[in-house]
Structures are given as C-alpha cells and as structure tokens.
Amino acid sequence: MRRFFVEPSAIGETHIAIREPSDRNHIKNVLRMGVGDEAMLSDGTAFEYHARISEILPDNILFEILDKQGFGSEPSVRITLFQAIPKQGKMEVMIQKSVELGVHTIAPVYTARSVPKGNIDNAIVKRDRWQRVAAEAGKQCRRGIIPMVETPIPMGEAVVKLAGYDLSIFPYENEEDVTIRAVLAPVAAEWKSRGPAPAGEGARIAVFIGPEGGISDEEAAALIHAGAKPCSLGRRILRTETAGPATIAMLMYEWEL
C-alpha cells in the first residue's frame, strides 16, 4: 500500500487533505490514483492513518480516514548517529542505510581529520540535500517518521550534546578488549525489564562514528570524558560509511527490534 507523509495540521476528525503540489501531482499523474484508492498516511510524529481517496479537488486531494493507529514500523529506541563527515558521496549512502535500519536523527560532525572542512553556507546546502536522501529512504522503507538530518556541527558541540542520552558509544579502533555487545547487553536488558515501550519512548542512544582517518587521541579523550563508551566492532576495521549502519543494526538486534 502506498505511503505518504502529511503535516499534522492537514489532519481532521474524519478526513486528511493533501495540499502539497508535488504530492498531489505524484498521486494523480504519476501513480494515477483515483477516488476509492487507499493509502497509508503518516503525520511523521506519532500516528499513521489507513485512508481512502474520497474527493480530488483542484487544490487538494481529500482522504477519508478508515483507521488510526500508532506507528507499527518505528523502534522504541531512539538512535542519534553523530557521523564524522566523509568524502563526497559516502554520506548519502550512509544516510540511506541508516534510515532503513531505524535511525532517528543524523548529526553530521566536522572532526580534526574530516576531509570536508566547516563552512556554514556549504553546511546548509549539504544538509538540505542529505535531508532529501533521508526522506526518500524513509518513504521507500515505510518508516513512520522521516529521520532528521541536522546541520553539520564542529566536534566540540557534538561532545556537549552527548550529555542528553541514556547511553553514548563510539566504535574505536584502539579498543581491543570491550566489545559492542559488552556495552549494549546490560543496558538493553535493563530497559527491556521495564516492559514494552511505545515507539520512540525507549532508550535514547548516541552513536559517534569517526572519519576515514579515525578520531584523534584528543577527540577520543573528550568523548570518554563526556561519558561515551569506546567499544570494538570486531577484528576488522570498517569504513566510516559502513561502521554507522553496522552499529545501528547491532543495536536493533540487541534490543530485539
């Protein structure tokens, strides 16, 4: 069944109005949907609606609400991926795969060894492009929300933000003794002992992934000082665009999501 995202303000008691021109064009002219056709509509925050087209007007498409329910495809755990910005082209792949695997937010970070350097105008342009990639991936894999891609920030700001999470981890090539499972298992067990949590209301976890050249000793020390736990992903060194999605997949497995 087709899925579309709508603003909460477009949702009424019995009907939902699709007013966005690009969405209306896609529904009418690309998909050639008509009165009586059904779709899933998501408000991007908490609920999704099984709805049926009841009327096609010049300035909107009206859907009749058949059923309303909480997100069925969203994990309870909320993962923010702090990703050191890699070389051109790799970020898009990393965003796409992370969205498919269930990430909630992606925070691009300029680190000491990042190849692209910080520039506010370029950062905004990149962020808009990356958000479109996240939106396309979210629709393709039927996410209940479109994960947010934030404007790139320097390493210092990323470290400060880690204080707001229930758990912060960073895969680190110099960590040989502590595995990611050793870090995740006790936290996951504690949260699961509380019983099932609604989508997005479980543990808030930060994952920090360094750049191609790895994070510097000073950056690793700053992360540890902020409470982030270093861990190993195994005996092989993963590329930066692989490490993020791999870590998210391990998290989802450990939380049985």
Number of helices: 7
- Number of E-state strands: 12
Shape: globular
Oligomeric nature of the chains:
single chain
Elements, N to C (H/E): EEHEEEEHEHEEHEHEHEH
**Estimated helix fraction:** 25-40%
Low-confidence stretches: none
Structural description of this entry:
This protein has 257 residues and is α/β, with parallel strands linked by helices. The chain is built from 7 helices and 12 strands. It has 2 domains: 68 residues, Ribosomal Protein L25, Chain P (Beta Barrel), CATH 2.40.240; 177 residues, SPOUT methyltransferase, trefoil knot domain (Alpha/beta knot). The chain is 34% helix and 25% strand. A hairpin with a 4-residue loop joins strand 3 and strand 4. The radius of gyration is 20 Å and the shape is globular. The mean pLDDT is 89.
